[in-house]
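Exercise 7. Given the components listed, write out the predicted structure of the assembled complex. Treat all entries as one system.
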Amino acid sequence: MCGFEYDEAIGAPDEGLAAGTRWAEVPEDWFCPQCGAEKADFAMVAVG
Amino acid sequence: MPIAAELAQTIVDPRAYAAGDPVDEAFRRIRAETPLAQAEPEGMEPFWVVSRHADIMTVERQPDLFHNGDKSTFLTMKENDGMVRFITGGEPNLIRSLVSLDGQEHKDLRAVVFPSMTPRAVKPMEDSIRAIAREFVAQMLERAPECDFASDVAFLYPLRVIMTVLGVPQEDEPFMLRLTQELFSSGDPELNRAKKEVNPAEALMLLKQTMEDLEAYFGAVTERFRANPTQHINSLIANAMIGGEYLNRRQMMGYYIIAATAGHDTTSNTTAGAMWALAERPHLLAELKADPAKIGAFVEESIRWTVPVKHFMRSATQDCEVAGQKIGAGDWMMLAYQSANRDEAVFEDPFAFRIDREPNRQIAFGYGAHVCLGQHLARLEMRVLWEELLPHLKSVELAGTPSRTISNFVCGPKHVPIRFSVN
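Answer.
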C-alpha cells in the first residue's frame, strides 16, 4: 500500500527481525513500520 | 519543453480547482503533452509538475533524494517566502509539521503517533465511531426531505471522530472547525479569517494570526496533558520524548495543528464528495443497499474521486533524473495528486465513478515514508458512516448545484444540497 519492501536479506532489525529472516518466519502479527498494513496485505514481488 | 503558460496558470488557480473541470482538462493535456515538465506561473518560483501516477510513486519512494522541508511544502507566491522565513527564523514553512519534515526528525516524530493509527490500533475504535455515526445519521434524517450534506453532516462527523481521538472536548469543536477552515481556505472569502477576498500578503498575515490562535489553545493543552497524561493523541504529543527531551515548541505546535486540521478536513471533503457522487447516481445507491459489502470499494473510489489534498511540493537534494528529465539540486516539484488519480495509464475510464476498480490504485493518501498517517482511521470512519446511513435512504438527489472550496491545496465540496427520502 505504501511501497515498503520487506527484503529477507536485510530483515527489519529495528523490529527485532534479523537480516536473513525469511518472510514465512516473520510473525503473523507483524505490520508495516511505514503505514501499518498487516502482513496479510503484503504481496510478493520479484526484484533484481 | 516547459508547460504551456495557460495550463501552468490553471493548475495553481484556486478558482479553477473550485470549478473542477478546468483543472482536470489542464492535467489531461499535461499528462499527454508534457507529463514531467516545468511550470512557471506568475509570481511563483518555477517547479516541475509531476503529473503521472508512476512518477509520483517514484519520487515518494525516495524521501532522502526528494525532501519535503527544504522549500515550501505547498504552492506559495514568491513574495511570501521572505516573510515566512522572517516569522519562522529562516524556515520555508510557517508550520513545522510532519508533512514538512525529513530524515530522522520525521521518523522520530511520526513514531510518536503511528502506533495509535495502525489498522490494529483503530479497529477497537469502531464501536464508539459507530455510535457517533448513528448520532449524525439521526440528526440528518430529522432534516428530511432536504439538507446541505456538506455543512450539516460531512463537516461535523469526521470532526467529532478526530476530536474524540485527540482528546479535545466537544465544546471546542466549533473553534477547531473554524480555525481549520481559516488555515486551509485563505483564498476563499466564505471561509477565510477576513471573510473577504485578500491578496497573498494579507492571506499570509491572516494565516499567522490563525496559527497564533491555535498555538495559544495548544499551549494550554500541553500543560493539561503533562499534569494528567492519557492515551489520547494530544497527550502522546504533549508527553513525547526524543533523545530524553520533550518536543520543541515548533515541533509540538506543528503536530497538534496537523492532527487537529488534516485529521478531519480531508475526510470531510471526501465524505461530501461521496454523497455528491451518490446523489447523481441512483443505480449506485441501489447497488450499495443491496450489497453493503461494496461499501469499502465505494469509500476507496470516493477518495480517488475527491482527491482532497490536491498537491504537495518536494525539492530535489541533488541532481537526478526522473522519467528521462534532468532534475537539478534544489528544484521545486509539485506532486499533482489530482492528476495522478485520473491517470489514463492506471485507471480505465478515469473520469467515471466506478466501484468495480479492482485493485483501486488511488494515491490520494500519498506513498512511501510520508503516506497519510490517518488513512486507516479515515477509511474506517467513512465505511461506518455509509453502513449506518444507506439503509435509511430510500432515495437521494441533488437539490441544487454543489460548490467547492476555493483552494489549490485542500479542496472539496463546500455545499452539497440534497433532497432525500427515508425508508
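Discussion: The interface with chain A takes residues 57, 60-61, 114, 117-121, 367-369, 371, 375-376 of chain B (CB under 8 Å). The first helix of chain B runs from residue 5 to 10.
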